[in-house]
């Protein structure tokens, strides 16, 4: 059953087919997995949420929403090490066996057999709702694997702290739905325990520059996915944090500006304008920065600024899908 | 693929309390109280509770193709089905610009994790006034199916009027696109509500 799902995933259009990036992430997983390396097969999956999982047959999914969010290799290693910990302790196999002997097996088949693995990620996470003890084991093993692989174990606690920032930013706060958090109880406890591991395992690298360089070609695409999620408050919390990264500041400012522009709550238009102007001032901004500036200037009745922004956008992206619309705006502004 | 469609459709039906199918005959039809369309062939309207404010029509069956028609959606109204409360909601705002309308529909169409790529956005008349026409490509999350889509939208007196049609890129979309475009061209927004015919 798992092998069939892996075949489906391999052929899926959501499978990010980038041999170099795949090999890079596979390398991180192998460094953590050690002798288990030949069992681990990493798939990069185009899905904008924060998640990674490892099935009992060694199929490991790493979602693009996770790759966007981690600041460095060590933070990714913290998540992958945790999943490898579950695999090494055969937690997911236990879950599968338990499901087979219970009425939940029908649900399990429904998840994997009919709608497919990708279509029911939330249910999959729910299916593998490990016990608190399983989670503690996976955290312990993950931290040990990180340390052995030479990564800074302190980054493990930072992953969860960063995610907590986003969850707390939601309108419903930490009470909102998140399949990953639903299966990982005790966030504060986890942060504390991971900090204790970090105190025991000192030293190690983060490889921040390497991570940001390797993922830079995807930054605009993944940020566009993030904006499209429509989870404005979470996105703003993440993007505000990410503007501190050494690479891609203009991209993050543009994305935050877009989120604010599309949310359109009180004060958002001004905040969006500020971010978009800052992105443009930095240079190397996405061409869409100027389109969004033009839209704001057009809305706020600044025709000259709107015209120059739209012209700049069309110069940078003459074949954009919305070029006919922007040209009609320019005609309207010239009339 | 046919089996998958049947299973998904069966699951959809199983999850619904009452699913009603109504034949929409060729000729002039009112959608809501203010949108009149003229169709040159019959469609099937599917309705059930929680499906959202759009009328949903289909030629081939809901798992294959969907024509959503919005008529008189008011400021703040949710534009999609509300059965999955855990997914993000997308609401219409009467001040939305054309790109924001498209972003709203994009958000709606990708609530389940499907991908959306805008391939064209252009000015167009719709319902007798200025509007937008857009084309898009989707890959569905559930079954990795590439879809093509076309949409039309306008805001009239602060209310949203729109049509979105999507179907599998190979075969079905090209088969029905022309009749969808014809429906869009025929759309007229009336100034005052027209009482429904019994």
Defining key terms:
heterodimer; A: mainly alpha; 3-stranded mixed beta sheet; 3 strands; B: 198 residues; alpha+beta; 3-stranded antiparallel beta sheet; 3 helices
What's the short version?
Chain A has 335 residues and is mainly alpha-helical. Chain A has helices at residues 2-11, 19-33, 64-69, 73-88, 91-100, 104-114, 121-127, 132-148, 154-169, 179-182, 187-200, 208-215, 219-228, 232-242, 249-263, 268-282, 288-299, 303-316, 323-334, and strands at residues 41-45, 52-54, 59-63.
> What structural class do helix, strand and pairing data of chain A support?
mainly alpha
- Element pattern of chain B in H and E: HEEEEEEHEEEEHE
Chain pair sharing the greatest interface: A-B, 29 and 34 residues
Number of helices of chain A: 19
Strand content of chain B: 35-45%
Q: Which segments of chain A are poorly predicted (pLDDT under 50) over 5 or more consecutive residues?
A: 103-128
Tell me the Rg of chain B in angstroms.
16 Å
Beta-strand residue percentage of chain A: under 5%
User: How many angstroms does the end-to-end distance of chain A come to?
Assistant: 64 Å
Biggest sheet statistics of chain B: 8 strands, antiparallel
Helix content of chain B: 10-25%
**Oligomer class:** heterodimer
Number of DSSP strand runs of chain A? 3
Give the ordered list of helices and strands of chain A. Answer: HHEEEHHHHHHHHHHHHHHHHH
Largest sheet of chain A: 3 strands, mixed
- Strand order in the largest sheet of chain B: 1-4-5-6-10-9-8-7
Across the major sheet of chain A, the strand order is 1-3-2
Shape of chain B: globular
């Amino acid at each position: 059953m798992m092998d069939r799902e892996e075949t489906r995933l391999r052929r899926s259009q959501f499978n990010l087919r980038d041999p170099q990036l795949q090999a890079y992430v596979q390398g991180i997983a192998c460094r953590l997995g050690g002798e288990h390396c030949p069992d681990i097969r990493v798939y990069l999956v185009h899905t904008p949420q924060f998640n990674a999982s490892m099935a009992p047959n060694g199929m490991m999914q790493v979602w693009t929403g996770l790759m966007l969010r981690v600041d460095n290799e060590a933070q990714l290693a913290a998540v992958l090490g945790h999943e490898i910990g579950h695999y090494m302790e055969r937690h997911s196999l236990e879950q599968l066996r338990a499901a087979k002997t219970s009425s939940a097996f029908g649900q399990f088949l429904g998840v994997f057999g009919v709608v497919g693995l990708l279509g029911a990620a939330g249910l999959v996470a729910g299916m593998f709702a490990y016990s608190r003890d399983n989670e503690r084991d996976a955290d312990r093993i993950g931290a040990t694997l990180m340390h052995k692989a030479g990564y800074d174990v302190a980054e493990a606690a930072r992953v969860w702290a960063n995610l907590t920032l986003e969850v707390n930013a939601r309108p419903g706060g930490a009470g909102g739905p998140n399949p990953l958090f639903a299966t990982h109880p005790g966030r504060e406890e986890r942060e504390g325990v991971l900090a204790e591991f970090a105190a025991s395992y000192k030293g190690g690298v983060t490889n921040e520059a390497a991570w940001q360089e390797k993922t830079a070609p995807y930054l605009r695409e993944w940020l566009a996915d993030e904006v499209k999620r429509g989870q404005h408050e979470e996105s703003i919390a993440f993007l505000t944090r990410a503007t501190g990264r050494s690479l891609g500041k203009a991209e993050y400012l543009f994305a935050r500006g877009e989120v604010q522009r599309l949310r359109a709550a009180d004060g958002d238009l001004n905040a969006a304008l500020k971010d978009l102007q800052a992105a443009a001032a930095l240079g190397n901004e996405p061409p869409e920065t100027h389109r969004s500036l033009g839209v704001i200037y057009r809305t706020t009745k600044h025709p000259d600024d709107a015209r120059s922004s739209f012209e700049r956008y069309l110069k940078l992206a003459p074949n954009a899908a919305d070029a006919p619309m922007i040209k009609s705006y320019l005609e309207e502004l010239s009339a | 693929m046919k089996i998958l469609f049947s299973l998904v459709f069966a699951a959809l039906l199983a999850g619904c309390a009452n699913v009603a199918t109504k034949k929409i005959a060729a000729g002039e039809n009112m959608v809501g109280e203010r949108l009149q369309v003229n169709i040159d062939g019959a469609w099937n309207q599917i309705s059930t509770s929680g499906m959202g404010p759009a009328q949903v029509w289909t030629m081939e069956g809901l798992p294959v193709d969907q024509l959503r028609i919005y008529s008189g959606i008011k400021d703040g109204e949710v534009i999609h089905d509300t059965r999955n409360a855990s997914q993000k909601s997308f609401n219409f705002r009467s001040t939305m610009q054309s790109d924001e309308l498209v972003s709203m529909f994009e958000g709606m169409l990708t609530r389940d994790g499907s991908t959306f790529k805008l391939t064209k956005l252009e000015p167009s008349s719709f319902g007798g006034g200025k509007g937008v026409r857009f084309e898009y490509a989707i890959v569905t999350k559930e079954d990795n199916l590439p879809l093509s889509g076309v949409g039309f939208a306008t805001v009239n007196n602060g209310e949203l009027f729109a049509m979105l049609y999507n179907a599998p890129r190979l075969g079905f979309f090209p088969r029905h696109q022309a009749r969808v475009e014809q429906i869009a061209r025929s759309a007229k927004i009336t100034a005052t509500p027209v009482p429904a015919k019994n």
